[in-house]
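<instruction>
Derive structure tokens from the sequence
<data>
Labelled lines for chain and fold:
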Amino acid sequence: MAGVENESGIDPPGIAGQSAVLCELADMIRFVGKPEFYDRASQMLAGALRCKRRLVMRYSAYDKPAFIVNEALNDDGVAFYLAGIYRIDPLHRHVRSSVAPTVVNLRSLAHEIDEKYFLELSKMSIFDEIAVVLPAYGGVTIAFCCERHRVRFEPQDYNLANAFLPLLDALHKLHMDRLFSAARALGRERLTENFGDALLVLDRRGDVAYANEAWSNNTDAANALPQVVRQIADSGPGHLQLDGQQVIHWEQLPPDFSLAPCGHLVILEHRSPGPLATSGDAALEAFCRQKELTPREAEIVRLSFVGLPNAAIAKQLGVSVGTVKNHRWRLYYKLDITTERELFHQFLSTLIAIENSECELEAH
């Protein structure tokens, strides 16, 4: 959007800026109920917040996140995120515990453990992020993420995003309603390319109002449906664990849901590892102990994880840059790695191992 994509903090032009936003708003409304809606909505929001990098993320109730729109990360960044770094993504943790429409600033969500996450984001050229978080149906949350790679967002940016929140939430609800209605009316096998989970809509009587192809072709889903219907009648929202990592879950739809007012949406999805709850200090201590690092090596790892370069580490430790480089070289040799990304992979593996062992202890 000409005249407003500026991270310098200069205020966008008055009437010209407002006119451009309103034109993009009109364009976004035209795509409500169509696959392009998320892209147009994120374009409008990113333009208003003066940033060019944007993402639209789909957070599921059980599965790992998915990218709907990606105008921020390269293929390596996406692969790295989905390979495991999503488990320490503060936004992922937030949407698993909150279902209300909201605007969040990434840094306001972070605890000390997330310092490593910010380091990884900085390598992906993401310095700060504002996300407009909108709940959908079936435990799904959509996050419109606007990102800057040089400067932080200011309070007025956060306020502007909050001003857009009621509008985006209302349009998103209408978008989801139209997607489901059109899928049934046109006999579509799926809602869009971005919603591939096996799903079923039951009306208030328990009859099938819509089932996508993924549901119809899944024998596990068909076999479990009678039990799901009974549980809905007995206890309302809930979930059913199937063999392997499949889980069926369901929730009641609102009275104004056109396809099946007061019906139920039933989804079958894969259960992926969720957010890590282990504290960063405990994980770092366990990692250094497990790898038999010296106190100086452990300190270098800790300072690296908060994003300090060799020169800053040397200054903090009161040694030369050459000494830090030598310690880092011996550290990498000991761990049989060559890059800091490999160091993070090993650290993440330690986090996961600690999490798994704690879960096993709780189970016993």
In short: The chain has a mean pLDDT of 83. The longest strand covers residues 128-135. Residues 155-185 form the longest helix (31 residues).
